[in-house]
């Protein structure tokens, strides 16, 4: 999908008046936008900020996103020490044009200057004026608080436009207090927002995202005028209609090609079998390469051109699959979706939130929907991966766009199931074997293992367990998924631990859970700030472990850990240890439930973590 340039210039920041504990303090962030017509605008962005330490060092660099429709008409940059002595300046002529991209063809580029502060603190003052000459799909956003542990003293945004010629919509986040100042200046309307003394945001585990905590305002045109096409962004329906008109009839393939496709699936008995075979066909005969020139940022290449070239981006490959399915009588719709944010802003139709395209296959006259990720056809057909599961999306149809929500896996189905066998010897050494099966989101989280070199695989898998003094043997990872079934990744590890238990006189103290690291949620720092924030768990899961420890001959069990049952609204932890048939059998489960919980639950999760860290040894 088309990369949109929001022109925030990588300097969005947080706030406390002049808090020295902040990594960055923005003294002023101002943006003045002047819209002349539906086809163009210009704006001046000015910033003055203090970098207190190396944590904010990257903000000294200049990174300005541009494309063929924009021009940098003014640029000023001065770095001083806190006393005002000039340490470094950057001229417009020093900016380097950087066009390298993973995309084959794009009109997007960056103007870059790398700047390293010689000491801290430093004060940076910079100004850019950018002119957009045509093909406007968005306006600069007001987003002065884009990072963690940053403070903003003053920030102002003003956009002026001829109301009789241009319609502009804007959306303010829930954190924005008060209303904008709206004025009529001659024939122009002016919208102005002012922020001051915003409090800093601290990065914490299981906390709302920074976007949920900071104020920002987004702006977009009502009408679309883009590379000779016209449309409306007044609603998601009208935006979808514009998008649909771009893709209409581009899925058509020659009859001779369709005949080959029909022969390919002739031995299939169900629609799902046909879909799976076509996914394999696309995987064998195409590769992903992004094409983002002009209207190509939104309009896919024709299905036939993808077939001829053997390449396409997310739009092109999804549209190609649409053409293949149409050829065998299976109905489908292209779906624009965002991989960053799970929810579309219903009151503010925009293209910024849509950066990807997938396919909805409509079976049984639309009663059953299969969601296909056509960009990565190595994923099992029907698997809805982390970047899109549960996300809002815009389904494109002849009557316009329809906002739909993709399915999300139940927490308990995001399963990690471990079988661990420990053969203990009298000298406290042990043979260890661990087999794991990972499903759904747990599968997707570790799927990159299959692309790793063998040594990296061994390092990653062995890091999951507490295995000191262990000589590792076989370590492997295998994808055993099948189309339209629960995706599954299996891993195996075995080895010899020279000292698994501790010998003290005639007693042997035996750890019961070598993979305890898998069971602890990310550590939460117990700070005053964390006590004010709700506990937010974005993705739930289940861990199940079955551990069998063989007791060596001549040994008897003196004591066993007590059973443990911890149950909270956000999750539960259970451990049961028994002696049976010359073995110690340990059954452990951890369930974490996605959701947003009151701030008091943060401390309770910390308490649960502490119990888990002591109960499984």
What are the defining features of this structure?
single chain, 617 residues, alpha+beta, eight-stranded mixed beta sheet, 9 helices, 15% helix, disordered N terminus
Can you tell me about this structure?
This protein is an alpha+beta fold and 617 residues long. It is built from nine helices and 36 strands. It has an eight-stranded mixed β-sheet with strand order 5-4-9-2-1-10-13-12, with no helix packed on it. Helix 3 (271-285) crosses helix 5 and helix 4 (303-309) packs across helix 5. The radius of gyration is 29 Å and the shape is globular.
How is the topology of this model organized?
Layout: E1 24-37, E2 40-51, E3 62-67, E4 70-81, E5 86-89, E6 96-98, E7 105-106, E8 108-113, E9 122-132, E10 150-162, E11 168-172, E12 181-185, E13 188-198, E14 217-221, E15 223-226, E16 229-232, H1 236-247, H2 255-264, H3 271-285, E17 287-288, E18 291-292, H4 303-309, E19 311-312, H5 314-327, E20 331-337, E21 356-363, E22 368-372, E23 392-397, E24 400-405, E25 415-424, E26 430-439, H6 441-446, H7 454-462, E27 470-479, E28 488-497, E29 502-504, E30 507-509, H8 528-532, E31 535-537, E32 541-550, E33 564-568, E34 571-580, E35 583-592, E36 595-597, H9 600-615
Q: Based on DSSP secondary structure assignment, what is the total number of beta strands?
A: 36
Computed Rg: 29 Å
Residue share in helices?
Answer: 10-25%
Low-confidence stretches: 3-19
What's the story with the biggest beta sheet? 8 strands, mixed
Structural class: alpha+beta
